[in-house]
Amino acid sequence: xxxxxxxxxxxxxxxxxxxxxxxxxxxxxxxxxxxxxxxxxxxxxxxxxxxxxxxxxxxxxxxxxxxxxxxxxxxxxxxxxxxxxxxxxxxxxxxxxxxxxxxxxxxxxxxxxxxxxxxxxxxxxxxxxxxxxxxxxxxxxxxxxxxxxxxxxxxxxxxxxxxxxxxxxxxxxxxxxxxxxxxxxxxxxxxxxxxxxxxxxxxxxxxxxxxxxxxxxxxxxxxxxxxxxxxxxxxxxxxxxxxxxxxxxxxxxxxxxxxxxxxxxxxxxxxxxxxxxxxxxxxxxxxxxxxxxxxxxxxxxxxxxxxxxxxxxxxxxxxx
Length: 320
What we know:
Structural class: alpha+beta
């Protein structure tokens, strides 16, 4: 191979290039013309593809690095920089992969989670100010894409997504605790027949209010509920009791249309929602039972005091 040189050739449009191994500059012209579809024996000029330097000297040809790329030009063709060849369109085929990458990056930047990812990259503490929708969108992003946006390794990004999920779960636990208290207070109000200020205020303030979220007209669910239902991990634990009741009431076929899932997946979700709803109602019933078993009236008086009163009314057994 010492007397043969590997190189590449292309036409002035740069749409295709071919690899050759030739013994001389003249052979490069002959084989290159053949591969590029030029008319045989037409005169061609050999130039360097990157800067247009004309190559006519055999010694200079052999001094160039291996796999140098040459451009073969006809008499009326001239070399031009890459992005100005043929009115600025000939480079499109060659740079198709670059263009596809640019389009992909543009699509990522347009995605709602991209700005959130950049916000996290600048300050991880900003997670405490993010809404549940923002956190869920970051959890749902494929790990490699989020890692690329943050500049993290995939393992670190995976740990970050798990942390975001824990933040979501903790917020949901707090909401469920408030909701259980609300249900208990309503049950107490109904049992006693007395309106309580504590129960009126949360209802007027809208404990379960959607906080400005839009309601999907087709399904009747708020946007957050639909987002949670389609979540990755245990969505039933992150729904309010009212949402769980609504899911169970709609039934299998209706929820299939809402979620656009298959029957098996939707059935599994419904079973999980029913179990979670039953568990919460049992908690409320247990709380009511504890309240009903609490001592009432005089029975709340300490036993020692009762004994002392009874002893005062008992005549003495011995005389003075």
